[in-house]
Structures
1.
Amino acid sequence: MSFSKRMGITPSTKVIQSESMDIDLRNSLWNALIAFYWNLYRSPPRRTVGREDFVRGSNLHQLAISIYMFHYKQPIDTIDEYWEYFLQRIRVTFFKAQWNAVYDFIEFVVQNGPDTNKKKFLEACNDIFERENSAYRFVAEQITPITSSEEINEIEQAILNSDKYGGVKAHLSTSLGFLTDRQNPDYRNSIKESISSVESLAKKLVGDDKATLGQALRVLEKKHNLHPSLKTAFSALYGYTNDADGIRHSLMDNESQLTKADARFMLICCSAFINFAIDSVED
């Protein structure tokens, strides 16, 4: 803790930044972009006498095109000729943007930029988010509202673990996307995708495209020592989503008001079950 914070001259902690972004957070994110992306720039092979820092033909030319075409939705023939001026324009836009647009931009760069430093950039951003008391973290390359690091890890691990289980990963990633869409979150469909991820895993575990979660739980109980109380808990949770008053039926009820808490709870629970089931099978 700095002298000023120890003496109480400046606050020792910040208010959680959920719908705002102070200059410390914005500066730190820009610095991370410089360190892990913009510093990757390499000029194209020399073509003329004079300047060499062309955007066209450089190793980041495709990223520049993607930013203009898909993020800014601007004509690509307005991209500056030289990298210096291109980056100046990006910088001005970054520092003038609303807080949510900054998150949109760094998320876009992660998903469309080179993979060289992606992992380090994600780690750096999450360190920055934590240090500056942001209410968000990167989870599976998407910026997500957080409540705890354990919840983030559970979801990330489920997405990572489910690589070889076909549709499971797709359902989890789609659920996360619906939940974290800052402009138009879709909690109903997020919950549907979470439930579908569990059903998809059940079919893989049982080896039957018509298998249910109940059948998968029996397989885990017989072959992998699933504790009876855990089986009961998972069955009860899944049963709640399918009974007459459950979430799945309420998805068809326009009067039902599902919340972010409902969708987040279901995603975390389904992720936890998927991690448990896969670890049990592969142990």
2.
Amino acid sequence: MAALPPDSSGRLLEIHARLCRHFGCPIAYFHDLAPLDELVSSLLSHRTRNADSGRAFRALRARFADWEAVRDAPVAAVQDAIAACTWPEAKAPALQRTLRAITERRGALDLSHLAGMPVDEARAWLEALPGVGPKTGAAVLSFSTLRRRALPVDSHHHRVAARLGLIPARLAVGPAHRVLEAMLPAEWDAQAVYDHHEVMMLHGQKTCFFTSPACGRCVLLDLCPTGLARARPPVHAPALPGRAA
């Protein structure tokens, strides 16, 4: 595991408190989907705007009677249904592979068994499926009706955490899940962990942009080494004697 900056857990708590005051916690869950529905939704959302992945999800539900029908349909029909997504030609066969893998492991398309598993075991079970990584596994456990204590880390959350010095800048999104989750207080329940993901994501969407972050109105500026460095005036080398400045 990559080395962490000093007192990362304490800084994370202050960051969380400020962002919760700013955005208003607790934050309502944005989905009320069964675990299998949430898995499909999460797989469609990769590198896709929420509005577009939502349209693709609704199109699948409208065109096919159930997920078994999606699993068994011609891949071209699934690809056509999810055309609103990025890379539907890749996501359609990948989705069907995931659905077939669940069927092979469970005997049916059913994820209800996750409710009775410890969170770490449930995440491992999900991440063993083709196409399911740490973010998707955590999203299924946190966002679905399971409402388990798991921390998804999307690109906005990851960017904010790196700029704040909570994780090394070169730490990839996948490994960042375990590093960031290890900083969370053990007493936090599922709602608090969900709130943390949401406020970090919202801060990335509304202030800490990928390009040209709005550091001047950031409620975390005094905690952010990246923002402070951007705000610091440039140091100019003194002119040499006999030369124009």
